[in-house]
Structure formats: structure tokens, C-alpha cells
Amino acid sequence: MTATETPPRPLEEELPRVRATLVDATGLLVCLDFDGTLAPIVDDPDAAVPTESNQRAVTALAETPGVTTAVVSGRALTNVRERIDGPTIYAGNHGLELARNGSVAVHPVARKRATRVERLCAMLETVLASVPNCRVENKRLTGTVHLRSVPAAAETTVRRITHDLVDRFGGDALEISTGKRILEIGPDIPWGKGDAVELIAADEPPGTAVVYIGDDVTDESAFRAVEPDGIGIRVGDDAPSSASYRVASPADVASVLSWLETIQNERGERVR
What we know:
Order of helices and strands: EHEHEHEEEHHEEHEEHEHEEH
Shape: globular
Distance between the termini: 45 Å
Radius of gyration: 19 Å
């Protein structure tokens, strides 16, 4: 926990403060995590879909003048693009690949180390094949070991084996990070969702308000990237976070997005 992490306040109690930030802005950039934010967390990652209300709210917000929308996910770029329609910009693999303005940029170091990630995922699939419900997901630039459905008695073993193999075959090139019942394997470079958000925000006009909504450990770098001038909203409980505000669950996100749409439309009317 860093010095900037404190329990985020319920957003509903802070709407006047947030509104003041938004109405003074020249535009709005809304960046969204996917799993646990637009889509409820499910045991099978392939079954994750955004709630209908979140899909509708994202589409409506993306069509609002003066608003740029982006999804910033740990999923592979192609995977997350198939799951949510509407956003102008997509960032996959925790920002290592970024689709905007009709092209896709990939972090050059991650591209060079992709073969090592893929080989390590193949090894883990073989070694962990006997563990019930343990799934290794090869996302090309990164890999994920899913623990959500692994029996509690086997989880320690899975974590130990994963760390051992990454240490042995990843060397200084790869690292492990943690999330909600997952182990993420990726290039050992100082890059994360926050870096992707900063790149996206740099293309916006001066005075644009930046909002980031996410739920997991990997979203903390994005909260730090937008706070304190922007608005970080954590989806979940009041555990310490770099986000200033929170909502309880993905079911609440649609209301937040609709409220942002309303504020932007009101601001647009005043400008006209």
C-alpha cells in the first residue's frame, strides 16, 4: 500500500464534487476495465460478457459528442474487442497492445519476449494438466494462470509451480503479477494500464477530464495515472486504493456511465 492509497469514498456521496470537475472540463475521456467492471467475474473467463445495461450505457456514451471511450483490459486485444462494442479505443494485455486511429501498436519489448511467454504457457499447461479446473491462458504477449475454480488444497501447489517455472525459464525477462485469483505472466518491464491511459489521454484536447473505472490490482496504476486531477472509481469494497471513489459492483457501472453521459450533454448545451 502506497501513501496515496486510502479507502475510496462511495461515489453517490460525492456526486457534487465529481460534477464540478466534469462541468469545468473541455471534454471527457472515459477508460474502462472489462472483467469485474463491465462484466461480472465468472468462473470460466470465456463466458464473461458485459451486462446488457453496461453494453447499452457504453454505446450511448461513445456516441455522445465530446466523449472518447476506451476499454483497457488484461485480456488479449482481439479477445476484448469481441466482447464489448462501442469504444473508440481498445488496450489489451494491460496496455501492451493499443488499438486507436485505425492501427495497432505493440510494446516493442513485449513483442520480442512473446515467444518466451508462449513457451512458458505451453510448459505450464503440461505440468498443471492434472490440477482440476486449472487453466493456463496464452495471450501471446502475456499469460494467465486462472485459479478461481482450482480446489483450495491445490492452489498453493499451482502458485509454487508457476513461480518456479517462471524463475527458471523466464529469468530476468519475465515476471509474475497477481490479481483476483489469477497469476499474470508478462515481460519484466515498467509498463501497465496506467501507461496506456496516459498515452490515450495525451491525444485528448487540453482540459479534458479523464475518468478510469476498474476493480483489480492491475487497475491501480491507471488510478494513479488519472488522480488527482481526474476521477478514479474502484468497483468493489472500500479496501485502500489509489481511486478516490467506489461503486459496489458491475451492476452499478451502467448508472455511472449514464450519469456521465447526462453531465456531458448538459455541458454541451451550455457551450452551444
